[in-house]
Amino acid sequence: MLGTILAATTGDVTKAGKAIGLALGVGLGALGAGVGIGNIFGSMIQSVARQPELRGELQGIQWLGFALTEAVVFYGLLGSILAYVLV
Amino acid sequence: MKRLVLTLSTVALILPADAFARGVFDPTKEFEQSEWIPIHLGPLNLSVTEAVAYLMLGSVMTILFGLYFMRGRIGKQAGRRETLGEMVYEIAQTQVAEQGLPTKAIGRWFPYVATLMLFIFVVNLIGFIPLPLTGKTYHGVPTWGIYAATSSLSVTLALALLTFVFTHYEGIKWNGPVRYFKSWIPEAPKPLLGLIVPLEILGQFMRLISLSVRLFANMLAGHILILTFIGLIFILQNVFLALVVVPVGILFYLFEVLIVIGIQAFIFAALSAIYIGSAIEPEH
């Protein structure tokens, strides 16, 4: 992958376009997931600050939400890699 | 002891012998499968590859883990071993099984979800320990490398298929086929049903994809990240990059080992429990 970014500097435009597409896909995916994960942990902090005794119960839900949100990046990554390899 | 292991694994990571041996280093090439023991049955390819070897190792280690931590004799005072075993068991029971499964099905499906959690955790963990199982040799000596069986889509898809099959089997068994498939159709005005029902059916199959791709992509991305950062030294052919690149690689390695692998194992088991539970009691 990185080798092709270097190859792009030598004038291989197709590869450069692919590399840009890959980076854009992953980057935009990470943007959305970043907002989502921040939201989850922010809400968790607020909930625990209000009702500390619920911490144990909330933690399971928190990690579940974290993993579900985080997976969005990887869908982006996978789609980008597929586009990179197949196109 | 802990420090020794950490240092050794760090050194093993700093020196990817593969890269020295080949000259040209491409991190994506690290995930290719090589057939060690070819077994071809007609169109079926059942060869023993890297992933199969890691899965076998993972199974053995999971059984040993369970035997050592949970089947050991409990003395008068619970030692560290018992405490750890109980902690894992408690997470599997309260956080995974009781969250998703209805009470009447816990006895039947707790072993499955707990095994899933332990197995995925152990396989993920083995994936981050450098082992001489890369299938390549450098002057006759097998080279060491990190590879996780769960970073192969076939493995995670097989695990997700298990959950998928069990979900519908249990749903039909507890509710009967008519009531179960009716429960897929949500309450909605008649004209919208033509739009919603295909989406619901698609959603059932999307579960299969999301469950398998989540684990697969997490592990693959983790390995690619570490390998790419270390590989920068060989791609740009500059030794001094190691000063920056190796600490970053170690950081990602620790992040993966301490946080990601545990969460992924937990999530896979918890979602399996939730899916099976929601099929047994579709009203909820």
Please tell me about this protein's structure.
The complex is a heterodimer of chains A (87) and B (284). Chain A is mostly helical. Chain A has a domain of 58 residues: F1F0 ATP synthase subunit C (F1FO ATP Synthase), CATH 1.20.20. In chain A, helix 1 packs across helix 2 and helix 2 packs antiparallel against helix 3. The longest helix of chain A has 38 residues. The radius of gyration of chain A is 19 Å and the shape is elongated. The model of chain A has no long low-confidence stretch (mean pLDDT 83). Chain B is mostly helical. Chain B has one domain. Helices cover 70% and strands 3% of the residues of chain B. Chain B is built from nine helices and four strands; from the N terminus they run H-H-E-E-H-H-H-E-E-H-H-H-H. In chain B, a hairpin with a 2-residue loop joins strand 1 and strand 2. The longest helix of chain B has 47 residues. Chain B is globular. About 2% of the residues of chain B have low confidence. The chains are: A mainly alpha (87), B mainly alpha (284).
For the structure shown, list the relevant keywords.
heterodimer, A: mainly alpha, F1FO ATP Synthase, 3 helices, elongated, B: mainly alpha, 9 helices, 3% strand, globular
The CATH class assignment of the domain at 30-87 in chain A is: Mainly Alpha
pLDDT under 50 segments of chain A (min length 5)? none
Q: Structural class of the secondary structure composition of chain A?
A: mainly alpha
Q: What series of H and E elements makes up the topology of chain A?
A: HHH
Reported for the largest beta sheet of chain A, the result is:
none
Rounded radius of gyration of chain B (Å):
22 Å
Percent of residues in helices of chain A comes to over 70%
Total count of helical runs of at least 4 residues of chain B: 9
Terminal Cα span of chain B: 50 Å
* Overall mean pLDDT of chain A: 83
| Elements of chain B, N to C (H/E) | HHEEHHHEEHHHH
| CATH H-level homologous superfamily name of the domain at 30-87 in chain A | F1F0 ATP synthase subunit C
Q: List the uncertain runs of chain B.
A: 17-22
Q: How many domains of chain B?
A: 1
Strand order of the largest sheet of chain B: 1-2
